[in-house]
Amino acid sequence: MSETSVVAHPPETIEGWYALHQILRRSSAAPASRDDEIPRIDISRINGELKDGWSAICTLIGSIDSLMLIHFRRTVEEIHEAQQIGGMLRTAGLEVSYSFLSVTEAGLYHITAELAADATRRGGSVGDAEYTRQVKERVDAELATDHVRRRVYPPFPADMPYVCFYPMSKRRDTGQNWYTLSLDERSRLMHAHGLTGRRYAGRVQQIITGAIGFESWEWGVTLFAKDPLTFKKLVTDMRFDEVSAKYADFGEFYVGRVEPSGSTSG
Predict the structure, then answer these.
(1) What's the domain count of the chain?
(2) Cα Dmax for the chain
(3) Considering only CA atoms, which of 53, 56, 51 is closest in space to residue 261?
(4) 77: containing domain
(5) Which CATH number goes with the domain that contains 27?
(6) Lowest CB count within 10 Å: 46, 188, 234, 257, which one?
(7) How far apart are alpha carbons 77 and 84 in whole angstroms?
(8) Could you say which of 162, 166, 247, 254 is catalytic?
(9) What's the predicted TM-score (pTM) here?
(10) pLDDT by residue (tens digit) across 127-144?
């Protein structure tokens, strides 16, 4: 069967908070200074009135950039307010060199495959009234679980000071086109990929954010850990999964440490 003959449907997803990652570096016009003179700013004035979300200031390590600001907010309007923090740091000799807008996401590959197969058996189709009713029912059930709520409304990782962020996309090459695979195949691949991540439960907090329609990259991955070496081991293991080995492209990696005085929950 050729790629173009495969009937491919997108997975249903659950979204939560909007996310913004801002990477900052010293302006070329700024005077030279030591790393320990990087300004520490109090963001409680921006975040104090919010009921949902949090922000973190991270000192980057091994990068030509200096800081990474991470914001999670309920709406894009609140993300825009938080975005102004990067602009405020211009007076401290820092400028935004890269930013990434996305939204927390839980992909329901397995559930979507089940419901699509059920629609075929009853002579219906993906997107019809019965399919839509079942999707809402399953989404409501998933949102009632602590596991999914932590994925789309992630808690601040107070005991995991190290952070790693990178963007990624799925390939659309001839013979390696993720978007022409059947739902069953994508569900199988993502299930195996998830099993790898589960081996790191308790050692890593992983936050997946969707960026399709927002950025040129399709997802953002933010990892928090107690030991930065865990990032190397986890990413290495996941690259040997079939889904990553065949279908994943990765962007720049940013690694750093969360500053305790520069993080606050809403």
Answers:
(1) 1
(2) 69
(3) 56
(4) 1-266
(5) 3.30.70.1030
(6) 257
(7) 11
(8) 166
(9) 0.87
(10) 899 999 999 999 999 999
